[in-house]
Amino acid sequence: MSIEVIIGDDHNIVREGIKEVIERKAKDIKVIGEASNGNEILNLAKTKPADVYIIDITMPILNGIETTDRLVRMNPKSKIIILSMHNNRSLIERAFKYGAKGYILKESDVEEVIHAIREVYMNRFFLSSKISKFVVHSFLGKKHSSKAVKILGQLTRREREILQLIGEGFDDKEIATKLNVSLHTAHAHRKSIMRKLDIHKQADLIRYALKEGICKL
Hints:
This protein is an alpha/beta fold and about 220 residues long. It has helices at about 10-25, 40-45, 65-75, 90-95, 110-120, 135-140, 145-155, 155-165, 170-180, 185-195, 200-210, and strands at about 5-10, 30-35, 50-55, 80-85, 100-105, 125.
């Protein structure tokens, strides 16, 4: 019986590359679906859930951490590996806080990716060997979340979704249309986000979203 995997990344070449090497090197793993953003992953999960999800952390529309949060809420048994270019402590903490079981770097070799899938499938945690030791030790030894994680934790799920869209350059009218809410509601959410983060300029809000890996350029 194969371990069924869904891959989420906004770059087709990345998805195809991961799929090709996995299926060539691991006969016990099968890629059953691909997605370019978080919403596509959620839709796939509703119709044909996978054993393991490999999700890029900075996808458009709905990033990897928000997608992880929603997958786990849909099915607490969801097993998710975050794929990232960054060994940023804050990102690692947030990934595990919202339900990821693995965190691997895009520079990882094929054997490590395959090993991560098998480990997470067995309900074990996995961290890329290339993550800096100080980051791993700091994360595993911490009793409390970092300041950045705590601050983001004050935002509601909707506010985090809107913060990503703001970071991607959408204005309130576009956000309202995309999320099917009123312009007043979108504006109210923006004001609430700025108050909670103590950020009061559009440019600073976008910089914050980029810095914390909520979105990418």
